[in-house]
Amino acid sequence: MPRMRGRDWVAVSAVSWCCAFAALHVFWALGGSAGLASSAGAELAARRPTVFVVLGLWGVAALLLAAAGVVGGAASAQLPPQLRRILGWLIGAAGLVMVARGVVVELLLITDAGGVRTAVGPEQTRWSLALWNPWFVIGGVLFVWTGCRVVRRLPGSRSAESCGTPVR
């Protein structure tokens, strides 16, 4: 990974989040089962159709590793400022989607809107509320914060004191 400016712990955390989640998907794709039923549902975890393994496990792992590379590249000084600006905005937008996804699914499960909680079952509901949705929210917050910091640190940025740390 390219060297990050000022050893940006937020970007390193976002990259680590991606890598940890990618590793879990690779574990599942290679046949591991711990946690899969609570994430994807017991029936899907037991059947493991090819399309699920290829797209839902290997595909998601590849997407997460690509995202880690984008975050690392955007946070480094190796890329041109205009490209880093675009990547910073895209990273922030992706983070907002992840936060929204985590919050919306959490609310749907808590309120049992449309019978969602009943449809997924008690075990998947419990793990979604306690682990999976908070995991998405944490990742989303890291992405939003990283995107903001990437844009803020660019030459000529007007948001010099935003995103939590002063400009260096």
TrEMBL record:
Keyword Transmembrane helix part of the UniProt annotation: yes
The keyword Transmembrane is assigned to this record: yes
InterPro entries: DUF3995
Ranges that cross the membrane: 49-74, 86-110, 130-148
One Pfam match: DUF3995
Alphabetical keyword list: Membrane, Transmembrane, Transmembrane helix
Protein name as catalogued: DUF3995 domain-containing protein
UniProt lineage: Bacteria, Bacillati, Actinomycetota, Actinomycetes, Mycobacteriales
